[in-house]
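*** Backbone structure tokens ***
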Amino acid sequence: MKLLVHTCCAPCLIGTKLTIDDWAEKQNIPVELACYWYNPNIHPYTEYKARFEALGEYALKNDINFISCDEYGLVEFTKNVIDDLQNRCGYCYSSRLEKAAKYAADNNFDAFTTSLLVSPYQNHELLRATGEKYAAEYNTQFFYCDARVNFREGQKSARASGIYMQKYCGCIFSEQDRYLS
């Protein structure tokens, strides 16, 4: 199976990959994995670049195809969430998963998924519904995997390897929440 993984950062990819590898072994299905970087929600720019570079280095060291849609999107992101900050994650999921679904369909991937599914802090029901919506729209498949079981292992592995570890989800508002909560 040729699988495109929308990837927010290297630590989340590690945990997601562990889950996918385990699934593939149990199903006896070979998986050709590629990570797809499209994260216009990550701010400030220094954070965006740190995550981008860490993911690129991890992918290179681990022979993972790294596909980059390198579009820093502070203005576009904030313009689209400012009037409904409580539901900003819905916009964030939608913008990134739509782009991943389209890329998967246009480039002959069997399915796509997201490394966001490794996080216990994300809304899995909304992620799944959003992925399935765009899979249908772009005539591809959304591969749902509950990778939360490998969240801590992914972080542990990233720390042990010296990979950059972020302190918040990504948007400037989640950074604020981190410090004010």
